[in-house]
Amino acid sequence: MGTTGHTPVDEAPQVVAEWTNRLIEDLDWSEAERGRAYLLLTETLHAVRDYLTVDEAADLAAQLPLIMRGIYYTGWNPSATPVHPRSKTAFLGRVAGRFQREPLDDAERAVATVFDLLRRKVSMGELDHVSHAMRGPLQELWA
After folding, report:
1. Measured between alpha carbons, how far is residue 114 from residues 2, 4, 10, 45, 77 in Å?
2. Does residue 2 fall inside a structural domain?
3. Domain interval for residue 86
4. I want to staple 67 with a disulfide (CB 3.0 to 4.6 A). Which of 12, 48, 73, 90 is the partner?
5. 6 pLDDT exceeds 60?
6. pLDDT for res 131
7. 90, exposed or middle or buried, with CB in 10 Å at 0-12, 13-18, 19+?
8. What is the mean pLDDT of the chain?
9. Residue 41 confidence (pLDDT)
10. How many domains does the chain have?
11. Higher pLDDT residue, 15 or 94?
12. If pLDDT is split at 50, 70 and 90, which confidence band does 10 have?
């Protein structure tokens, strides 16, 4: 495979692998669960995006690597955000609902692990804005 000479594009597959590997490691999942880790990452990013206002969602996206920004925006309908209800239960239910064949053992831990990954990859200032945009109990998952 050739390179484009544009580093963010050339490194995109490695970024997805790095983020997915980190989730597998942090959740003590097996390599065979790589697809589940990717689904968890995708669904959590989408849920975060949809809980934010359009401006807040765009501000977070600006902090993400190119490929993660594309994943984040996939399927977005800005006119339908922020979604309601915006409770912790609804958030966790939305993410967990995508794991029909192999349910998440602990959706709260899984989502908190993605939030921890974001904490390592996105500026603290931006994450403060995002976590404060979330409602009370949901903010606890960012801690």
Report:
1. 31, 30, 24, 8, 22
2. no
3. 7-142
4. 12
5. no
6. 85
7. middle
8. 90
9. 97
10. 1
11. 94
12. low
> Is 112 inside a domain boundary?
yes
Q: Is residue 76 part of a domain?
A: yes
> Domain holding 33: CATH number?
1.10.490.110
Contact of 68 with 127, CB cutoff 8 Å: no
Amino acid letter, 6: H
Q: What is the pLDDT of residues 28-72, one digit of tens each?
A: 999 999 999 999 999 999 999 999 999 999 999 999 998 899 999
Cα 68 to Cα 36, 90, 101, 116: the distances in Å are: 16, 24, 25, 16
Q: How far is CA 24 from CA 40, 117, 125, in A?
A: 10, 11, 26
The amino acid present at 40, given as its one-letter code, is L
Domain assignment of residue 39, yes or no: yes
pLDDT of residue 12: 65
pLDDT of residue 47: 96
Tell me if 110 sits within 8 A of 60, measured CB to CB.
no
Contact at 8 Å (CB) between 9 and 68? no
20 near 68, Cβ under 8 Å? no
Q: Phi and psi dihedrals of 74, rounded to 5?
A: -55, 125
Give whole-number Cα distances, 92 to 24, 40, 142, in Å. Answer: 19, 11, 13
